[in-house]
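As noted in the main text, all predictions were made from sequence alone. Below is one such record, for Fe-S cluster assembly protein SufD.
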Amino acid sequence: MTNTPAEQAEKVAGVEVGERRISIPGMSEEGENLAAQTNTAADHSHGGVGESKEITAGIGSRAKRHIGFDVEGFPEPNGREEEWRFTPLKKLAPVITDAATEGEPVSYEVTAPENVTVSSLGQDAAPRNTVLHPADRAAVVGSKNTAEALHLKVPADAEVTEPIRVDITGAESGKRANSHIVLEAESHAKAVFVLEHRGSAAFNGNVEVKVADGADIKVISLQRWNDDAIHVGQHDAEVGRDAKYKHVAVTLGGEVVRLNANFRYAAEGGEAEMYGLYFADSGQHLEHRTFVDHNAPRNASNVLYKGALQGESARTVWVGDVLIRKAAEGTDSYEKNQNLVLTDGARADSVPNLEIETGVIEGAGHASSTGRFDENHLFYLMARGIPEKEARQLVVRGFLNEIIQKIGVDSIEESLQEDLENELEIAGY
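Prediction:
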């Protein structure tokens, strides 16, 4: 008898993963041993067209990863470290060295209603550095070399109907720019923040988001750089009691882009989501890393990243970490990454990681897939009279449109649809 897809789910470290929630065989309510087993389990890799065949071993708990504000605690990487092994370090040299901003390489334009406070925060001015704690060399040198952070605060109970925008425009290729942005929403506030990056620069940008109790906040980060731009960044959020948080990262431009998007909880009852869309052309390296820290009970999270690749040497990387701590009973968490390889020579690496320290959870799991067009989809469309070129366009649009619809801002969704049309023209579709 043929097994169902659920029954064929891959087993990693004794935990079933795949397109459904996990089950944990023999898991006790305490479950202290599972994290240790996960970290020392047999090697595993998720296969797929264009994906690395290298086997990845367990490397220890994400809870033990070094964080801090001391640059000396983060030596310059050599590429053998787990967190840097996929990254082209030579190209990132302009943004991971301990260097100040060179002149005024980027400009900032803030668009916000009068009830949103726009100010700046020095190194020791709260809430700066209360949410974001640098987790790698790039983040710590960016934090150190940004004297004043841009601070946007939405007051309690306010509902901002129009997006609060920060347009960041690079003026010169290769010029180092350090940036730090603090987005704060007081209790029961509701708002959408849009961070849009264009132009050329060597940009090191940290973003921290403080979401108070009952607030409903969405952060949309658009990377529409020119082809020669370099961008690294760490985006951290803290989600309050019964609050809602959504982070959407869309990366289409830039020679090398590496974003770390992370969140944790300040109390129970929070709902947090991270979505990502990336489209890599020849010569581009687009890398996204996510970390969900379930450090409080009865919270929910969902992560979904989708990417498409075309052209020789197009490269994408997604690494997703979920940590469900012992205190996080009642957690409901899921993460998924999907990649569509459009041409030969492109490569996608996808590494989902899941650690669970308690068996008292609602659900948790992860999934990863990388492949080419589904020939059944093409056949279905072409059998109904749609030419092959248009059929392929429809498949790609349908694949990526799920993420675009998460944005919820009509003007941005429409402009991204146009950008995708341009990407498909480059591919010859």
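Helices lie at 32-39, 89-96, 137-144, 375-382, 388-404, 410-426. The first helix runs from residue 32 to 39. These features were considered when defining construct boundaries for the mutagenesis experiments described in Section 2.9.
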